[in-house]
């Protein structure tokens, strides 16, 4: 009986983890779709404005609740989505689902995924094909995992570039 309960718990845990990763992929897919319109339908109330940079709340719901901000730079005309959170198990699951999504939706040679990984820092950048000089270059997203050396606090930041960032 004890073995059966253990197997049942492991199976349920696996099902919940897979469902969560599927939701994470949907979240990132929706955000990338929103990037095509400079995040117009998920741009919430203005939070601040300084030196031509306007910060808006993001209304896109996700596993983190309402998260992230929309940045509009009036000097360059660009719009970006940004999320910055302390790293935890939910973030780890989101990052894994994000990596799987990127591999599936941004295949080479049309896209280039650059990975820079050091001991306390990881950066992943997704760009259009950088080998063809005739094609315009576009960065789709960047995410970083960083460890503060003073307190060993890990953070995760995701930036998705809007259509205007081309």
Low-pLDDT windows of residues: 1-25
Query: Given the structure, what is the number of helices?
Result: 2
Spatial strand sequence of the major β-sheet: 1-2-5-6-10-9-8-7
What is the N-to-C succession of helices and strands?
HEEEEEEHEEEE
Instruction: Describe the largest sheet.
Output: 8 strands, antiparallel
Notable traits:
eight-stranded antiparallel sheet, globular, 10 strands, 39% strand, 166 residues, alpha+beta
Brief rundown of the structure:
31% of the residues lie in helices and 39% in strands. The chain is α+β, with helices and mostly antiparallel strands and 166 residues long. Strand 7 and strand 8 (121-128) form a beta hairpin.
3D architecture notes:
The chain has 166 residues and is of the alpha+beta class. It contains two helices and ten strands. The strands form two sheets. The protein has an eight-stranded antiparallel beta sheet with strand order 1-2-5-6-10-9-8-7, covered by helices on one side. The chain has a two-stranded antiparallel ribbon with strand order 3-4. The N and C termini lie far apart (60 Å).
Walk me through the topology.
Blueprint: H1 2-35, E1 43-50, E2 53-58, E3 61-62, E4 65-66, E5 69-73, E6 78-86, H2 89-105, E7 111-117, E8 121-128, E9 139-147, E10 154-161
Antiparallel strand pairs: 1-2, 2-5, 3-4, 5-6, 6-10, 7-8, 8-9, 9-10
Helix pairs in contact: 1-2
């Amino acid at each position: 009986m004890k073995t059966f309960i253990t197997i049942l718990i492991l199976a349920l845990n696996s099902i919940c983890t897979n469902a969560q990763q599927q939701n994470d992929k949907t979240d990132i897919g929706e955000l990338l779709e929103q990037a095509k319109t400079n995040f117009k339908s998920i741009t919430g109330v203005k939070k601040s404005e300084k030196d031509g940079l306007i910060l808006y709340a993001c209304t896109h719901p996700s596993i983190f609740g309402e998260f992230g901000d929309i940045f509009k730079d009036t000097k360059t005309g660009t719009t970006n989505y940004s999320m910055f959170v302390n790293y935890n198990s939910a973030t780890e699951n989101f990052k894994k689902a994000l990596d799987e999504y990127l591999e599936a939706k941004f295949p080479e040679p049309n896209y280039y995924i650059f990975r820079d990984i050091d001991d306390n820092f990881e950066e992943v950048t997704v760009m259009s094909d950088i080998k063809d000089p005739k094609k315009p270059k576009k960065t789709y997203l960047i995410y970083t995992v960083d460890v503060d050396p003073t307190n060993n606090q890990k953070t995760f930041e995701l930036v998705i570039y809007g259509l205007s960032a081309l």
